[in-house]
Amino acid sequence: xxxxxxxxxxxxxxxxxxxxxxxxxxxxxxxxxxxxxxxxxxxxxxxxxxxxxxxxxxxxxxxxxxxxxxxxxxxxxxxxxxxxxxxxxxxxxxxxxxxxxxxxxxxxxxxxxxxxxxxxxxxxxxxxxxxxxxxxxxxxxxxxxxxxxxxxxxxxxxxxxxxxxxxxxxxxxxxxxxxxxxxxxxxxxxxxxxxxxxxxxxxxxxxxxxxxxxxxxxxxxxxxxxxxxxxxxxxxxxxxxxxxxxxxxxxxxxxxxxxxxxxxxxxxxxxxxxxxxxxxxxxxxxxxxxxxxxxxxxxxxxxxxxxxxxxxxxxxxxxxxxxxxxxxxxxxxxxxxxxxxxxxxxxxxxxxxxxxxxxxxxxxxxxxxxxxxxxxxxxxxxxxxxxxxxxxxxxxxxxxxxxxxxxxxxxxxxxxxxxxxxxxxxxxxxxxxxxxxxxxxxxxxxxxxxxxxxxxxxxxxxxxxxxxxxxxxxxxxxxxxxxxxxxxxxxxxxxxxxxxxxxxxxxxxxxxxxx
Length: 515
Prior knowledge:
Number of strands: 21
CATH class of the largest domain: Alpha Beta
CATH superfamily of the largest domain: Dipeptide-binding Protein, Domain 3
Helix content: 25-40%
Strand content: 15-25%
Number of helices: 15
CATH topology of the largest domain: Dipeptide-binding Protein, domain 3
Distance between the termini: 43 Å
Strand order of the largest sheet: 8-9-10-1-11-19-12
Mean pLDDT: 91
């Protein structure tokens, strides 16, 4: 019998045989996400995942805290010199990940690039009121507005890029391997499902304590749960259904961290043509949806029934009547709209519609409950589940009748103007980036939304009360609930506190410990 191979010889053979080398990645924290970002350039990304990742790499002048108040980030301070002029002072000594200095010239170049047709930024319309950006000195920049526009401060969270990287020629490179001034720098992205970020020693707050961040796309919820239980993942943020949380809570290696959230879930309508173009039909469907049981049984207390986009804690929230669960009123409205019951309860439907949702198991289960509730009122609904990228593209292009979706966070109430103003309907002209995906068009509402964007906060509050009343009548969507921000974290991730808006930025203040 041949003598056993010495350990050193065995190690050399393993190293020489192709495919046998085992290279462990550097230590770090693994974060699971549901879908890949369409871009890491904050000028181009529309998805919540893309925006949250971009914030870690390319922060903006400001960031919004949990209350929705804008606070300085790359800016040291800001002040309103007049209703149409805002001045920002940058923090001293800011540098980009490539070592170059971040100055007011980079801020100006970033915002000027939004108007480049070759960039085709879907966020450009948010800055329609911006006339020009003026560089006063290396650390001082002024934003000149064409008209008063109160939400500007919140919108200045757009990631600042090096002036040398803002052109259309660098658009692909910046979207794939961005350079910014955030707490984490881009390290690698071998494919769309894997992204590695490294701590940036030159960040103004110092390098984060986490040695590496590994973001991995896991589309299936069951697989995300198993990866947590097996210790192969350290964080899942707002990507697990409440039904699985009790089992995870009993696992000693994991923690459930929650915070009241600002996200808003809704049932969307296509108002362009067909039955849903009739306000009475939309009101009827709203009266057939019973949100209470959904919140109680599906969320186990981790959501609050909504009566509109704004959570009750928001400064601009106003009470409205809402479309209470009322099947009798729904029947009356459908009769009036020309959709009578053809043969009594349980027979042929009054009308038939298709509801699109993602393949996420929890979202599909919610869609099936909505299907059942609407069927009781004589509305037959076909539920169609699609991979998220396909689903989201259909929604952007108006290829739907009904859909379920959620705003990941609601910070600035001017989001209602983006979501419901007739100027925000997606089209080729705005690169399908408009947020009024149902195509609501109402001149009276447009006027109120425009006025609310121009006046001071006390006046805005009164206007938003009127806006919420108008939306309660028009019913462009059925308000469902505001979901809590829920993080499932391993014991290796310490000092992490969820953001109310579901951001990844708290990772910059967290640390990693080995068990």
